[in-house]
Amino acid sequence: MRAVVLKEAGGTDNFIILQRPIPEPLFDQVLIKVKAFGLNRSELMTRKGYSPNVQFPRVLGIECVGEIEKDPSGQFLPGQKVAAFMGGMGRDFDGSYAEFVLVPRRIVLPFESTLEWHVLGSLPEMFQTAY
Length: 131
Prior knowledge:
- The chain is an alpha+beta fold.
- It has a single domain, classed as Quinone Oxidoreductase, Chain A, domain 1 (Alpha-Beta Complex), CATH 3.90.180.
- Helix content is 15%, strand content 30%.
- The protein has a five-stranded antiparallel beta sheet with strand order 6-3-4-5-7. It has a two-stranded antiparallel sheet with strand order 1-2.
């Protein structure tokens, strides 16, 4: 899979696109095929080095929408539309600036919508902020 990796804190020139293996989920994790993600101020601050606990290199991205690729528990079905946000994405573990993201099942929410992916990608974090 392709992933946008931040080598180290600093300017945008520290982003590189790399080929990485598609991760395998453990029982409490879900693998999502990313269809869209939002860009957030917190990611800008992390990129600039204002998130001291973030270890580099790191794939940023604190939210995404997409389809279930794998869920070992069977709670979510392949192809099911889901959103995932926060919970350490892009900070404690690699986030959504990639073709696939591996996240804890507890931060995954199923949904139904006829909106286009690029619209849906901006909603998870915005919704949580408003909530």
